[in-house]
Write a structure and sequence with these properties.
Elements: H1 3-16, E1 20-24, E2 29-33, H2 47-51, H3 59-62, E3 69-70, E4 76-77, E5 83-86, E6 91-94, E7 110-111, E8 116-122, E9 125-130, E10 135-140, E11 146-148, E12 153-158
Length: about 160
């Protein structure tokens, strides 16, 4: 494998959302691991988001989708005291395990640390996303079966 091919592979992996890749052939063995430090930043919420009651959640947010099984991204504190659960990877967001199942969580539900909140499908693997915080679901920020990016907020949580 040439140096240019290795650099292209590293660039592809860094954009894919994968944290680690191992490739082994008869000629060579390569292991690429991304530094996965957790970063937090403060974001101010608009007054309309903070004042929206749970009963006014759009119907799309109430449709089922299945969560992914993977390391969840660290929660991010919002200016109004709410925290975000973020996607730890690129993939497709599902609120339930299958289309006929109830969503893992809905607006108004109390969640605990380690509870599965959604699924993110990446490369035909269904990864359950678990909450790293306890609190109440204030808003589901992504529609079911929608593509999500790495570190994209999925849920807004009130830790109180």
């Amino acid at each position: 494998m040439k140096a240019k091919e290795i650099q292209e592979l590293i660039d592809f992996i860094s954009k894919s959302g994968l944290d680690e890749v191992n490739i082994e052939t008869e000629e060579f063995k390569i292991k690429v691991k991304k530094n996965t430090e957790v970063k937090q930043k403060k974001v101010e919420a608009s007054p309309s988001t903070a004042a929206a009651p749970a009963a006014s959640v759009p119907a799309a947010e109430e449709n089922g989708a299945t969560p992914a099984t993977a390391e969840p991204a660290a929660p991010e504190t919002k200016g109004n005291g709410y925290l975000e659960i973020k996607s730890p990877m690129i993939g497709t967001f599902y609120r339930s395990a299958n289309p006929d199942s109830e969503p893992f969580v809905s607006v108004g539900d109390k969640i605990s640390v380690g509870q599965t909140v959604c699924i993110v499908e990446a490369m035909k693997l269904f990864n359950e996303i678990e909450s790293e915080i306890a609190g109440t679901i204030i808003k589901v920020l992504v529609d079911n079966s929608s593509p999500v990016e790495y570190d994209q907020p999925l849920f807004l949580i009130d830790p109180a």
